Amino acid sequence: MFDLFRRPKPGGPEAMRARLEGAMAKRRLRGWNPPLENINALVASGGPKLLARSRELVVTNGYAANACEAFAANLVGDGIKPSSLITNAALRDQVQKLWLAWTDEADADGLTDFYGLQAMVAREMFVAGECFVRLRPRRAEDGLLVPLQLQLLQSEMLPFEKTETDPNGNRIRCGIEFDLIGRRVAYHFRRRHPGDSTDQRLAVPDTVRVPAEEVLHIYRPIDAGQIRGLPHVAPAMVRLFLLDQYDDAELDRKKTAAMFAGFITKTAPEDPMMGEGAADLDGAAISSLEPGTMQVLLPGEDVKFSSPADVGGGYEAFQYRTLLAVSASLGLPYHLVTGDVRQANYSSLRAELVEFRRRIGQLQHGVMAHQLCRPIWRRWVETAVLSGALNADPVIARPVQWIPPRWDWVDPLKDIQAQVLAMEAGLTSRRKVVEATGYDIEEVDRENASDAQRAADLGLTYRASPGETQGARATPVQEPDPNSSDGPSDSSAGPDLQQE
After folding, report:
1. Phi then psi for 62, rounded to 5 degrees?
2. Rounded to two decimals, what is the model's pTM?
3. pLDDT in tens, 154-172
4. β strands within 235-297, DSSP E
5. Distances from the Cα of 116 to the Cαs of 71, 77, 305, 366, 437, in angstroms?
6. C-alpha 92: how far from its chain's center?
7. Helix or strand or coil: residue 83?
8. β-strand partners of 474
């Protein structure tokens, strides 16, 4: 007798078919026949339209705009900053001070500093999926500390449709020139933005060839061999667009329904009623209703008040589920996209922030630091040495680590206590703990030493109460006067300096 509940043998044909169910051509899957196309072909064909829709969505849709700012703020914050690893303390201080001064001059447009450029790159990654940074050497007479500046170029500046073979035998794919072994050798940029009607220039060739060593291409490769970026907002674009249309339709429906208080039925159309005015061009008469009106109706006349349908009890649940799907598509926590924390608590917020920050950390180290910060630091060190702004061997001055911005947790006290316990147990170093806050440990140590020296010069001693668990409390106490038999009086201690 056939056993209906017989399980397939491990490794048998039934088990193999179960694993390959997604490849079957059964009735429910018969209409699912996606083309087997490479991601580069998809980007080349749909890239311009996808990019245009993405930019419009971020400008016109509140959720998309909020998600873009949250993405950039968490990815770079106030900046991914360098910490030089030079062993010579004097040279390290010189390099750090020169870099800090140059960051104010880094922008070729003069609108922001180097860390502001990082934020612009992060926004472009969300909107366009990629951003190009051109390294612009400057002349000595330009008066820069280090003759180097950075120019940001949007994705539209590199034409998707430029796919051909160069006369030198190299292949040009989506505007990027590759040599015979697949290395990037040049970028063919447009001379002006295709959507900027204010930039009217003389007739010049449409594109200009820029060597690859002068250009940084910042994007997150999703598939192996991918040559152009995809907008980070792409998976959520359709839902956001349709949800925006749905909300607009609901607002218009409620607005239209609120315009009509009621409808009047009359037996004699020529008789005015309830403040009825003159008929409009279409012959329809509009009647106004004022407070305190008591209208006497003639036989056969009737007034029916408008009772428009409400959005219903499912509107809120539908919005929540749709925005939850949008947040999952964007890889952002729900409260960062919508600003809604009504259903959140400490545990749920921390759980989603831990996962979100793992993803952001991946982008910080694999994309921003690797593709943007390190090449710029390498070129900056070489330029500083060649221009005479830095007297050092570029090989010695090159080692550096990039410190991402600190994370602000839901309960910072618990995290600081956990870090202190980890240091005391030898599970981590003080350097790593300080760097996790977004600061350079060398700078923190110098500030601590300066504060301690200043406190000693003023005769102040800070002591913390042992066993405090509700926050550190330090009270400066003035040292007793050795020439006085009495201790320091309250009046001589000056103003109350107790701080929590």
Report:
1. -65, -40
2. 0.76
3. 999 999 999 999 888 999 9
4. 262-265, 276-279, 285-287
5. 14, 10, 58, 20, 20
6. 32
7. strand
8. 464, 499
